[in-house]
Amino acid sequence: xxxxxxxxxxxxxxxxxxxxxxxxxxxxxxxxxxxxxxxxxxxxxxxxxxxxxxxxxxxxxxxxxxxxxxxxxxxxxxxxxxxxxxxxxxxxxxxxxxxxxxxxxxxxxxxxxxxxxxxxxxxxxxxxxxxxxxxxxxxxxxxxxxxxxxxxxxxxxxxxxxxxxxxxxxxxxxxxxxxxxxxxxxxxxxxxxxxxxxxxxxxxxxxxxxxxxxxxxxxxxxxxxxxxxxxxxxxxxxxxxxxxxxxxxxxxxxxxxxxxxxxxxxxxxxxxxxxxxxxxxxxxxxxxxxxxxxxxxxxxxxxxxxxxxxxxxxxxxxxxxxxxxxxxxxxxxxxxxxxxxxxxxxxxxxxxxxxxxxxxxxxxxxxxxxxxxxxxxxxxxxxxxxxxxxxxxxxxxxxxxxxxxxxxxxxxxxxxxxxxxxxxxxxxxxxxxxxxxxxxxxxxxxxxxxxxxxxxxxxxxxxxxxxxxxxxxxxxxxxxxxxxxxxxxxxxxxxxxx
Length: 498
Known about the structure:
By secondary structure, the chain is of the alpha/beta class. It is built from 19 helices and eleven strands. The strands form two sheets. A nine-stranded mixed beta sheet has the order 3-2-4-5-1-6-11-10-9, with helices on both faces. It has a two-stranded antiparallel ribbon with strand order 7-8. The protein folds into three domains: about 5-35 and about 325-495, Thiolase/Chalcone synthase (Peroxisomal Thiolase, Chain A, domain 1, 3-Layer(aba) Sandwich); about 40-105; about 110-320, Thiolase/Chalcone synthase (Peroxisomal Thiolase, Chain A, domain 1), CATH 3.40.47. The radius of gyration is 28 Å and the shape is globular. It has helices at about 5-15, 25-35, 40-55, 60-65, 70-75, 75-105, 130-140, 145-155, 165-170, 180-200, 225-230, 250-265, 285-295, 330-335, 355-375, 375-395, 425-430, 435-450, 455-470, and strands at about 110-120, 210-215, 240, 270-275, 300-305, 315-325, 335-340, 345-350, 415-420, 475-485, 485-495.
């Protein structure tokens, strides 16, 4: 390996897992989600009081005296003992009923993933490198330096020759108006939802909750209202439209759906994740904004969720965990991915040169919280010992610093869906989580075939895993996405069906 390659590898490592102690507050939070689940406490108390109740009623004294209250009244030596035992039995029964009631009231409902579909654009929207470069050139928006920069960057992104642009951008001249943006949205929604409804047997009127996330395009009426209008959904459907939340908004939508399904019994939730790039194709020459032109592509996904027990035998996956981390209080993180206008008034999304470092910090926090929930005890002990030793080194001001221990998450998950935000993101996670090539294959394949489809990319990756036939019943899938804000959100699914 050349010195240049080694230097690059070390740079990637320092980006993703800087050699510093994990913030103890996140470790505490992660363990508290496991240890201080009060439902487990209520559940543990049930056999204690149930045992006390049955032991009390089976005592010889109680059995003998309880034959008749009249006979007890004649046996003064046993009357006092009878009333003591009767009181104990009644109190135990009341406490037992109260505990069972509280447990079932607080018991969270399981959330099942019944089916999901991704949008497959038509072939005439494909943008191989040659079409991308020629279209950029003849659009007249870019100077020669910007054209060369995009061409050079495109070859390094990890995108292949068959990614897609929306029809508005590919028009000659490009049409990036509101009408074409609406057309892009309708294409994606229709493609995803028609396939979802036909494959599940459910119809638009069966949906109780609708959640749509799209970061950059937010018309009035909203995109969720667009779907309601097109599919003539019920007037009482609860609809939500999440805007401006970046590439990790797909997991945020799943989190919102999960919370709503805890409240609304016997419900179906539909999540639609997409990004609309028609009006957000940058037409200027600022390099930090040109990056998005080479990365982002057309795509979307629709996910059908349920909390109905009757669907447990039909569902594909069970939602185990959702972890959300936000670094927006930090100014640098807040502006790492930032929509703005350049000096000529051209609107675009700038990507900070510190993005990888910021993403690594957010990822580290997310995994620190998630670890106690999913890792085997062997890994948790190693991590905790390493953490305490590093704290000791800081306290004693030791010159020697022990490297941070990165737990082996391969022992918790069999499949990984890493947001296809770019080759550097996938490389960083593969290197620092010590993943095998087959673990990141879905992410690389998705980036190559579809590009960065923003919040829907993790669903293209899960689709790739299913198509490959590598997932088995009981195995777990880890979805992780990074987005503006700056955010790092993750979800854990368990496969139910063979």
